[in-house]
Amino acid sequence: MNILLATDLVVDICAARPEAGARAARALALAERLGHRVWLYVGAVQALEAALVEALKAQGVTASDGAIRSRVRVLLKDFIRGKQWLAALAGEGDVFDAEDLGAAQLVAALARFADDDIVLLTGDERLLARQDPRIQTPADYTARFTTAERQAVDAFIDLKAQQDPLRPALEQGLHRVLHHGQYILGPEVATLEARLADYVGVEHCITAASGTDTLLIALMALGIGPGDEVITTPFTFIATGEMIAFIGARPVFVDIDPRTYNLDPTQIEAAIGPRTRAIMPVSLYGQCADMDAINAIAERHGLPVIEDAAQSFGATYRGRRSCGLSTVGSTSFFPAKPLGGYGEGGALFTDDAALAKAMREIRVHGQDRRYHHPRIGINGRLDTLQAAILLAKLDRFDWEVERRAEIGARYTAWIDAGCPGVVTPYIEPGATSVFAQYTVQVAKRDAVAQALGEAGIPTAVHYPIPLHGQPAFAGYGYRDGDFPVAEAAAQRVMSLPMHPDLSEREQRRIVEALTAAVCT
Ligand SMILES: *Cc1c(COP(=O)(O)O)cnc(C)c1O
What we know:
Elements: E1 2-5, H1 7-14, H2 18-34, E2 37-41, H3 45-58, H4 65-79, E3 84-86, H5 101-110, E4 118-121, H6 125-128, E5 135-136, H7 138-145, H8 163-180, H9 187-200, E6 204-208, H10 211-221, E7 229-232, H11 238-246, E8 250-253, E9 276-280, H12 291-301, E10 306-308, E11 316-317, E12 320-321, E13 328-332, E14 346-350, H13 353-363, H14 384-395, H15 397-418, E15 438-441, H16 445-454, H17 484-492, E16 493-496, H18 504-518
Parallel strand pairs: 1-2, 1-4, 2-3, 4-5, 7-8, 7-9, 10-13
Antiparallel strand pairs: 6-14, 11-12, 13-14, 15-16
Helix pairs in contact: 1-2, 1-3, 2-7, 3-4, 8-14, 9-14, 10-11, 10-13, 15-18, 16-18
This protein binds pyridoxal-5'-phosphate.
Pyridoxal-5'-phosphate binds near residues 236, 237, 240, 310 and 334.
């Protein structure tokens, strides 16, 4: 729920007006407890300052105008902490037909939220006289919500909470793009690529339209096609095997390590044949595959290695970062991934200049200069608007990676201590996970998931059917039983809510519900 505070209430609180101030402060405290998002309208800043100066004068404060104004600024600076600024949008200035311009702007701004997700809190009689159900007094709001149920865990992956600290940078970035208008491969894309390459520690980063396109582009750049084989894991999101099949190559599956869920290096060599052209491990759930072992095998056979790091951006493996561990690293910026944008996106990483050039060309119809196409490519570019969003998100990414590690470690400690029979994630020594998913194994998964759902806790299964069992892969002749470790995992894995803003209190409730569910 979003709460937009009208100027009069801010003045009531900041000037500590006897009754109105206390009522408004109570409503705000409730909003905070309920996790409602409190907004102030940027367009009202000047009116706010003026009204507060008047209020202090009316209370008999005697000082120079300058001194009162400084005091007002201190009060407001203190007040805005923890609140969100609602930027004024073009169009919200077109209110000159209205009686009260300030009120008309506020009401226009309400249209940006869903009707049942916004409350404009005010004691202003003129606003209340509009009889708009979205406009309420602090007393209405308090009465409506004090009895509200204790809130359920917000979401499996909470994308709204993470916006709050980023909003100024996001809005500035988006507006900059709207103003310069270079929507395709604008300057933000190049800046993002430079920053991502630097973050991963490789020479070249090529962004793309999704983490599926990146896999396709990498395979195409390596010249893989019909008649070729690519070794990969059956225990992954469909895109991994799908792109191998899409270019006409055969996905050759190798079973996983039961502890990490990643490709088992000891079984790879047996799968290499005369048609093998690449190895494509996946760094599942946020932990890198055993890349040193895989690279060593690949080197012996002269094969490139594509790390599908869609879930592991930000993870480290023996001191190096995911995406920079093999011939090519491929990641995704799908919203739910560790570095998630607000739409589709992905990126490729390599130290190989020739490969980087090929991937850059394939991303834009195989062109090396305008309307000249030495190779076949696709339209696989990242939008400039998405790059601007990702640049803002990158500023907070280190913090998010730390929180993910902390939340993951806390889950593991609490579950190991309290939930017998639940298998928590195993993280290899020398590795860190970004916990794209926090995934446990439980017996009777459906019953446990149902019990958690009834307690208001969403869960998910990543993934219920290994790729070799998917109807789309039926033509490759795999059978049930071919990859027993992956098949067993698919029966038992269950992911718990995981995002960097998950609070300790919510986590406690999740683990308590899990304990209750597995022990009954
Ligand atoms: C999400 C994901 C992809 C695909 O990424 P998109 O950006 O959604 O296309 C590929 N591989 C794995 C392992 C993934 O989790």
